[in-house]
Amino acid sequence: MKLTTRSEYVFLAILSIARSKEKGYIPLSKIAREQKLPMKYMEQLMQTLCRSGYLSSSRGKEGGYRLAKPARKITIAEIIRLFDGPLAPTESVSTYFYRLTPLSREKKLLGVMQEIRDYVSNALEKTTIADVL
Amino acid sequence: MKLTTRSEYVFLAILSIARSKEKGYIPLSKIAREQKLPMKYMEQLMQTLCRSGYLSSSRGKEGGYRLAKPARKITIAEIIRLFDGPLAPTESVSTYFYRLTPLSREKKLLGVMQEIRDYVSNALEKTTIADVL
DNA sequence: TACAATTCCTACTAACCTTATAGGGATTAT
DNA sequence: ATAATCCCTATAAGGTTAGTAGGAATTGTA
Fold it and tell me: Is A5-67 assigned to CATH 1.10.10.10?
């Protein structure tokens, strides 16, 4: 697992929305301004979040985004997988992105990687957006 | 941390050398043939290992590579850092490759990443080539 | 000495990924 | 109508990955 700005930006945006006291939708312009995120880039990431059911959106004036489910139902693991792929250090020990890699032959080394994968996976599956609010 | 073929190939090569019963130097041609690794690409990686003091080499006929220090003194962590950079999931919690990232603002999330970094680092620092032989 | 086998060094490259920017279309409250 | 918003697609600069290519330097052996 390696985080890129995609995951990192998305966490800032989701947390911003989750913390917001306002009832309605939060426009991206506000989030981008407050968190200093590149607006047009964020638009794409927000769409991905909508399509995957984490956010719901409303167009037009008074539009924006809000959480489509409670913060405690959104795990850190899901978001990272969605934007930056496997949590595992190598795909040969990944559950969701499995494929054979050169390391696959070395069973002991693979075991070490598997343990890391299990730890990381467990830590991130059990941590939700609500936990980091 | 994310492994590329660089680290993975290098582990195969080092293990191959470490397992070899022969006294002298092992030529790369032999390793590349046995492990089916791209020879000219490996040359570059082997040089990096030499320059960093993990292997010593001899040119010419009967030349090749051998370990420059005992297998139990070479940690998995060192090799991965050398070829694939930080063990941490994001550089804002990396010791050797630290820099500020967007996530730096979110202290709780950063804490989660820090714990992962600590676990991975510890696991890989204490595991050596000798352990995975 | 000549040769063959090796490492050493540098340059180059195709394909892919990251991090955006750009322009416009569709929708909606006022 | 208008302004503000999200939606969609195309494009691109720069970096990374995974090599290939060609030759220089070194060394044991015939």
Answer: yes
